[in-house]
Amino acid sequence: MPACSILVVDDEEELRELLRLVLEASGYAVAWASNGKEARRILARENFDVVLTDLLMPECDGLELIGELVKKRPQVAIVAMSGGGHVAGEHYLQMAKSFGAHVLLSKPFAHEGLFAAITQARAEVGAEVGEARAGEQAVV
Description:
Layout: E1 5-9, H1 13-25, E2 29-33, H2 36-45, E3 50-54, H3 62-72, E4 77-82, H4 89-99, E5 103-106, H5 111-139
Parallel strand pairs: 1-2, 1-3, 3-4, 4-5
């Protein structure tokens, strides 16, 4: 598995810690934030290959964060995760896809699903970068 840096953004402390432990044990470099506002501060000073974000959080939610990442950091793979809240989780996840998330992950999920989502999101970003480069070369 290639070395990869991941920012985990979730307001549930127990889940953040579990994800950190699982990902670090698998060789990933992990940082974490408790909401989108905190994630913004971390992203201002560090680069990440993947952002794994919850959608329903206080202050700045995951949808807002995804929208900003798509505009400002298109090279970052985005995995959106949600358990739903008051509305079905699938509704929020579909909204995340329309905002630009590469992969959707419904809570609860198994470790295998987490690793598959990260791999798939990184592959999608790689394909997008390749297409953009091909388009740039065609214009020249």
